[in-house]
Write a structure and sequence with these properties.
35% helix, alpha/beta, 85 residues, single chain
């Protein structure tokens, strides 16, 4: 499955990202500052291309377009988890 999860730098979003990757799903992890999350960096090194990160604040009106652009090469998005906020 292809999964988009917002609010992934810590807490529930990070754990949902871990669990999805453990089940071999592909994940777009959306966070305001994903490069500041050591946990996301570790997951990226462990799971490679199955984890994409995207720096975006979901309160920004341009956020939906940025997320859509990030997954444009996916055949579809199977699950969207709006956890940010």
């Amino acid at each position: 499955m292809n999964i988009v999860i917002t609010g992934t730098s810590r807490g529930i979003g990070l754990e949902l990202t871990r669990q999805a990757l453990a089940k071999k799903h592909t994940v777009l992890a959306v966070a305001r500052n994903p490069d500041e999350s050591q946990e996301l960096k570790t997951l990226k090194s462990e799971h490679g291309d199955r984890l994409q990160t995207l720096a975006v604040d979901v309160t920004n009106p341009e956020a939906p377009a940025k997320i859509q652009n990030a997954v444009k090469n996916w055949p579809q998005v199977d699950v969207l988890i709006n956890n940010a906020g």
